[in-house]
């Protein structure tokens, strides 16, 4: 879910107005880039690429410690949750909606101003609430009011932080596929714009301005702060300008297929955990699909247009049970970042194929031009999984390395119990680093 944000101004009936100052509370303001050792926050993730198509995290908000499920999206900044206000197209039962408590941000607050293009920021009176509207590349959208509330966070050093974080209380939603609303209560924006979760946490001195994820077929984990980032073994490439206050992008990149250059180059790539699949612009897409098809000549796979799971599918003599059965028929792809020596992302067949419930294999790279992405190329969950991906906003770099993102489970702990995860991190921290990396 990459965003192309635009904002409008409406008035709404979300209770009245209140002076709220944006304060950091318990945690003192830390200096950015100081040498002070900061802690990190780690959350377990749920989800998969197929059939679910998203990864989500459960985060508590407010004094009542109510948990909300958020779709994690490195392609956008704003975090929002469905709001218990007169609500259009909120899909959750009332008791699972966020209840605002006179905590809307004022229209003149810096965070509200940061959300709006200068020309579009019209505060009519000093009492106006901060309205937002966010629109995603898939044409989904959320409209609401920016509020702030305590978000209790267990830090890896054992402390509990309860920073006050600003996020959207969304009361009007549109979904990209109208009849299949997303099952999550909202979106967690992992971008690096001022309003994003990580920007706010790092401005308050809770963690360094580093965020990352490790996605697997069974979930994985998400982290804020730099403690999980190993000091060696990570491939880094620099973020490009587009990465400021928006999505994380890098490039230019060149595509290799089966170890050979394809002539497809100068691709700008956006790392988007909010997108289930990978998208290339029409030209690159056509070439890559042609290479994959050519390579299938003489192999026991035929087109399976009857399988509508994705635009391009193939069937074998018998239904496939797993990617293990088919990966020998496909070559690995690689994306080489031409400006950074030796920086490449390996895309094994598992990083661009799925096996559908019909036992066919489908191509998980899609035609971005067809869905209106223009020249943007998106690396989605299918290609991000089984890697730790790090967005280091302090050094303005994106890094990755292949790893088993289910390792927490192997420690005999369930990923669904933050407590379990937390104790591994605090009690066994050094050991954990060694074992995983
Ligand atoms: C843990 O780290 C936070 C900052 O990230 C700091 O404020 C807190 O004092 C630390 N707690 C301990 C026990 O060191
Ligand atoms: C990709 O989409 C563009 C725009 O809709 C279309 O012209 C092109 O033929 C598509 N490519 C393939 C291989 O379908």
TrEMBL record:
Signal peptide: 1-23
Catalytic residues (positions): 73, 272
GO biological process: proteolysis
InterPro entries: Aspartic_peptidase_A1, Aspartic_peptidase_AS, PEPTIDASE_A1, Peptidase_aspartic_dom_sf, TAXi_C, TAXi_N
PROSITE patterns, per the entry: ASP_PROTEASE (PS00141), PEPTIDASE_A1 (PS51767)
Keywords: Aspartyl protease, Hydrolase, Protease, Repeat, Signal
An example Gene Ontology molecular-function term: aspartic-type endopeptidase activity
Domain Peptidase A1: start-end pairs: 55-401
Family to which this protein belongs: Belongs to the peptidase A1 family.
Protein name (Swiss-Prot/TrEMBL): Aspartic proteinase Asp1
Naturally occurring in which organism (per UniProt): Cucumis melo var. makuwa
């Amino acid at each position: 879910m990459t965003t192309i944000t635009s904002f409008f101004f409406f008035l709404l009936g979300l209770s009245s107005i209140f002076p709220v100052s944006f304060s950091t509370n318990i945690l003192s303001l830390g200096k950015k880039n100081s040498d002070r050792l900061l802690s990190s926050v780690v959350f377990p993730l749920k989800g998969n690429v197929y059939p679910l198509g998203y990864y989500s995290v459960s985060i508590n908000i407010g004094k009542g410690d109510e948990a909300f499920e958020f779709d994690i999206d490195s392609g956008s900044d704003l975090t929002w949750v469905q709001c218990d206000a007169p609500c259009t197209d909120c899909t959750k039962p009332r008791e699972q909606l966020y209840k605002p408590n006179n905590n809307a941000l004022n229209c003149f607050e810096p965070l509200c101003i940061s959300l709006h293009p200068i020309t579009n920021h019209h505060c009519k009176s000093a009492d106006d609430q901060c309205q937002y509207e966010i629109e995603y590349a898939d044409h989904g959208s959320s409209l609401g009011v920016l509020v702030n509330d305590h978000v209790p966070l267990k830090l890896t050093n054992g402390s509990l932080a309860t920073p006050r974080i600003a996020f959207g209380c969304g009361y009007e939603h549109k979904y990209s596929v109208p009849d299949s609303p997303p099952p999550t209560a909202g979106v967690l924006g992992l971008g690096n714009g001022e309003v994003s979760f990580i920007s706010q946490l790092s401005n308050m001195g809770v963690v360094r301005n580093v965020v990352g994820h490790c996605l697997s077929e069974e979930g994985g984990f998400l982290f804020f702060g730099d403690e999980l980032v190993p000091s060696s073994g990570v491939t880094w490439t620099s973020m490009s300008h587009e990465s400021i206050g928006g999505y994380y992008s890098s490039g230019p990149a060149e595509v290799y297929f089966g170890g050979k250059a394809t002539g497809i180059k100068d691709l700008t790539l956006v790392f988007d955990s909010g997108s289930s699949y990978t998208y290339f612009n029409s030209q690159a897409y056509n070439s890559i699909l042609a290479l994959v098809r050519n390579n299938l000549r003489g192999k026991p796979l035929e087109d399976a247009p009857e399988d509508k799971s994705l635009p391009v599918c193939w069937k074998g003599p018998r239904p496939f049970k797993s990617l293990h059965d088919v990966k020998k028929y496909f070559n690995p792809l690689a994306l080489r970042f031409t400006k950074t020596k030796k920086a490449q992302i390996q895309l094994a067949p598992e990083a661009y194929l799925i096996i559908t419930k019909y036992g066919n294999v489908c191509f998980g790279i899609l035609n971005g031009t067809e869905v209106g992405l223009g020249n943007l190329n998106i690396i989605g969950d299918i290609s991000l999984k089984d890697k730790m991906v790090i967005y280091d906003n302090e050094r303005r770099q994106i890094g990755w390395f292949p790893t088993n993102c289910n390792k927490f489970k192997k420690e005999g702990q369930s990923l669904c119990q933050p407590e379990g995860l937390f104790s591994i991190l605090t009690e066994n921290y050094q050991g954990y680093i060694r074992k995983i990396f």
